[in-house]
Amino acid sequence: MSDSDLLAGTRASRSRGRLEKTAHVLMAGCLAVMALAVFVNVVLRYGFGSGIAASEELSRLLFVWMVFLGAAAAYPAGEHMAFTSLAGLLAKRRAAFALLTALVRVLVLAACAMLGWGAWQQVVVGLGSHSVVLGYSAALLPLPALLCSVAIGAMALLELLQRKPLDLGHGAEVE
Questions:
Q1: For 14-48, what is each residue's pLDDT tens digit?
Q2: 3-class DSSP state for residue 129?
Q3: Which of 91-95, 97-101, 150-154 has the lowest mean pLDDT?
Q4: For residue 2, what are the contacts with CB-CB under 8 A and spacing of at least 6?
Q5: Which of 96, 114, 137, 152 is packed most tightly, with the most Cβ within 10 A?
Q6: Do 134 and 94 meet the contact criterion of CB atoms below 8 Å apart?
Q7: Distance between CA atoms of 36 and 93, rounded to whole angstroms?
Q8: Distance (Å, rounded) from C-alpha 93 to C-alpha 96?
Q9: How is residue 139 annotated by DSSP?
């Protein structure tokens, strides 16, 4: 491996680390705003008999964004649920393991394509309507699903093209 390959790997690792940290900060921000909005709304409702109507809409929107940000951030870290029993059995057979790895990545791409297509249709439908209380475009609710499917699809395609082997670790033993 040449020095330029090591430098490119270091840059990619730093960039990946920054993206991961940004995703975590955004998720924490969503969670903090949601918790504050719900807490204030509960106190106002039970303490003073009135609440903030926008609290529920804001919390729902932030929750959807937080979930899909988390899903996209979990993919490169190998933190999605994985059934490694079959893959673990094939790990010693290089050709079979490579074929299974490719099949898994193609299935991920197919799932991302279906999710992305459905999310795109919902974004288009949502462009013509707005939320009742806050008035934001209803396209903001399915948009994170579209962005997540594009991000995970791009990562899976890159792994497929690079022939990166499946990570069987996932922080647990292979069953």
A1: 767 788 899 999 999 999 999 999 999 999 989 88
A2: coil
A3: 91-95
A4: none
A5: 152
A6: no
A7: 52
A8: 6
A9: G
Residue with tokens 């057979």: 93
The DSSP-derived string for 119-144 is HHHHHHHHTT-B-SSS--BGGGTTHH
Q: Is 90 exposed, middle or buried (0-12, 13-18, 19+ CB in 10 A)?
A: middle
Q: Inform me whether the pLDDT recorded for 148 exceeds 60.
A: yes
* C-beta separation of 57 from 130 below 8 A: no
* Residue 135 C-beta-side C-alpha neighbours within 13 Å: 0
Write the pLDDT tens digit of every residue in 49-91. Answer: 888 888 989 999 999 999 999 999 999 887 777 777 777 778 7
Cα–Cα distance list, 14 to 11, 21, 104, 163 (Å): 5, 10, 27, 22
For residue 166, the 8-state DSSP code is P
